[in-house]
Design brief:
By secondary structure, the protein is α/β, with parallel strands linked by helices. It is 28% helix and 26% strand. Helix 1 packs parallel to helix 5. The relative contact order is 0.22. The structure holds hypoxanthine. The site of hypoxanthine has 12 residues, from strand 5, strand 10 and strand 11. GO terms for molecular function: S-methyl-5-thioadenosine phosphorylase activity.
């Protein structure tokens, strides 16, 4: 089963007919994680939707309970996750408005609850597939090959230009970067920078969920243009780009059975 995780600018999916809101209890927070379960036009089967920043976009990137979110998706039987992330562009191909399906990640976040395998038997045993041991997941290729292919084939079908490459640098936020920080990210090989790509991708892998990300560049990263990065400017790009993201997700969902 397929789920979308919406990021900044994607709090709802047009045409998504919500059948129920599942309030899923997890060992990772006191309150339930609310996940919308419903149908998309032309798509067989149930699709799940989780707005990462909460209804109304109130939870900043460093306060998102990534473990609760991913655990709740798995509890509902989700097997594949397509995540949407807004990013700042670093590579010259990644100007505002460009969509990318990144291949790699460098994690610069700190202090986030970033693993289910925390040496805490209570957490781990509450989930049937975990074992109460130190576990090192393979993360050589952080994104699912099959889901990336699905996204790229869907973009091809729509004749939507999508950059099929890129290294995603995940920063702690919520502030944006300095010029020197972006230079460092660039030197490290990052092509885009965002605040929500990790630990989400790694937690998905720990749970055995296939996971891929669709990134929308909403600004040039700090220092790469003369412009000051403002929220109104970001919102303007989001408003334009989200229509393409919606079409891409809808097509990917309609082709999703190809994966199984
Ligand atoms: N930096 C980090 N995260 C972001 C940016 C950025 O420039 N734009 C959107 N998310």
């Amino acid at each position: 089963m397929l789920a979308f995780i919406g990021g900044t600018g994607l709090n709802q999916l047009p045409g998504f007919e919500v059948k129920r809101i599942a309030g899923v209890q997890t060992p990772y927070q006191d309150t339930a994680v609310d996940i919308a379960c419903g149908h998309l036009p032309g798509v067989a089967g149930t699709v799940h939707f989780l707005p990462r920043h909460g209804e109304g976009h109130t939870v900043p990137p460093h306060r998102i309970n990534y473990r609760a979110n991913m655990f709740a998706l798995r509890e509902l039987g989700v097997t594949s996750v397509l995540a949407v992330n807004a990013v700042g562009g670093i590579h010259r191909q990644m100007g505002p408005g460009v969509i990318a399906v990144p291949e790699q990640i460098i994690d610069y976040t700190s202090g986030r609850a970033h693993t289910f395998f925390d040496g805490d038997a209570v957490d781990i045993e509450s989930a049937d597939r975990f074992t109460a041991s130190v576990t090192h997941i393979d993360f050589t290729r952080p994104y699912s090959h099959e889901l990336r292919e699905l996204l790229l084939a869907s973009a091809g079908q729509l004749q939507l230009p999508v950059w099929p490459h890129g290294v995603y640098g995940a920063t702690q936020g919520p502030r944006l970067e300095t010029i020197a920080e972006v230079r460092r990210l660039q030197n490290d090989g990052c092509d885009m920078v965002g605040m929500t790509g990790m630990p989400e991708a790694a937690l998905a892998r720990e749970l055995g969920l296939a996971y891929a990300s669709v990134c929308l560049s909403v600004n040039w990263a700090a220092g790469l243009s003369d412009d000051v990065i403002t929220m109104p400017a970001i919102r303007a790009v989001l408003a334009q780009g989200m229509d393409q993201i919606h079409r891409l997700l809808l097509t990917a969902a309609s082709r999703f059975p190809e994966m199984s």
